[in-house]
Amino acid sequence: MPAIAPGPLPLDAPLPLDRLGRPLHDLRLSVIDRCNFRCPYCMPAGAPLPDTDSRGRLSRAEIVRLVQAFVRLGATRVRLTGGEPLLRRDLPRIVSAVAAIDGIADLALTTNGQLLSRQAGALRRAGLGRLSVSLDALDPAVFARMSGSRGSVHEVLAGIDAAADAGFAPIKINCVVQRGVNEDQALPLVAHFRNSGHVVRFIEYMDVGSCNGWRREQVVPAAELRERIHARYGLLPLSARHRGEVARRYALADGSGEVGFITAISEPFCGDCSRARVSAAGELFTCLFATRGTPLRHLLAHDAQYASLCTAIAGHWHARADRYSEQRAAGDRRAIAARVEMYRIGG
């Protein structure tokens, strides 16, 4: 565990940079570590389930204190994740409380969409700004395989429509692509969401956690998908909206839509990573591929602990030197055992 500087963080202290000069701009906060799907790349059937119950998860008040500290340290973008966040019953109240925090420029949420049709309106009214929906296939049989036979593609599509009706625009549609499983779904997804205003993003299958049985030969490189989509529609590169944006953006040449590619395997982007992650139990992780987290919940009980909480987060960010994807790409074969599972900290 990195050393933490003693004493409170002065209110006029400079915003922290990590050891590679990266600022803290993004917080990805899991509100629950349970899920109603069993996607094989994240929480496959048979995976050990988290042992945290509702008492072990951060309360709404603790979440507010935590987010306030991250905003004080430079975070302007907050994404609520899971597990599946729509399983948390007080989610609209969490969204409302977080949206009221001064300094947040972007409040987003990632969901599998199964429960979205009945909750989209409440989330929008609560102040949620953006939505990302995981959708790995349009074909019902392929979708069933990739959700562990727990979901309905028709329910997810209905949820996306309900979210659009509630005012979410554009919605990001995230597809994790696996060789021999769903790479044939890329073109149908682009075709389906053309002219909808939504953005389809293709994510290379990543070696997050230890229970998904990841093998490199299962990865479909983004370049392969780009070539396939370009051959059908033509692609024009778009510039990033901000430093650290994870997706490489392209417009369809006829102006009918946009696609993105997240290339953590073939084209790592660690150098611009400005993301911290906190689990539903209040553990701080400074990398998606981390082996362990740092507990923060003991500093969240009272408002009076705010300065100490800021100091703890800043100290760990100062000590951060994570660049796992770059090391993997460079051929570093050092084993990293028991990486944190994706369903504990979101994607």
List the defining traits of the structure above.
globular, 347 residues, 10 helices, twelve-stranded mixed beta sheet, alpha/beta, 27% helix, single chain
Description of the structure:
With 347 residues, the protein is α/β, with parallel strands linked by helices. Helices cover 27% and strands 16% of the residues. Helix 1 packs parallel to helix 2, helix 1 crosses helix 8 (306-318) and helix 2 runs parallel beside helix 3. The chain starts with 25 loop residues before the first strand and ends with a helix.
Distance N terminus to C terminus?
A: 23 Å
Rg to the nearest angstrom?
Answer: 19 Å
Q: Could you list the spans in which at least 5 consecutive residues all have pLDDT below 50?
A: 1-7
For the biggest β-sheet, the strand order reads: 7-8-9-6-5-4-3-2-1-10-11-12
Q: What does the main sheet amount to?
A: 12 strands, mixed
Helix content: 25-40%
Count of helical segments? 10
Quickly describe the structure.
This protein has 347 residues and is α/β, with parallel strands linked by helices.
Topology:
Blueprint: E1 26-30, H1 60-72, E2 77-81, H2 91-99, E3 106-111, H3 120-126, E4 130-134, H4 140-146, H5 153-166, E5 172-177, H6 186-193, E6 199-204, H7 222-233, E7 235-237, E8 248-252, E9 258-262, E10 275-278, E11 283-285, E12 294-295, H8 306-318, H9 324-329, H10 342-345
Helix pairs in contact: 1-2, 1-8, 2-3
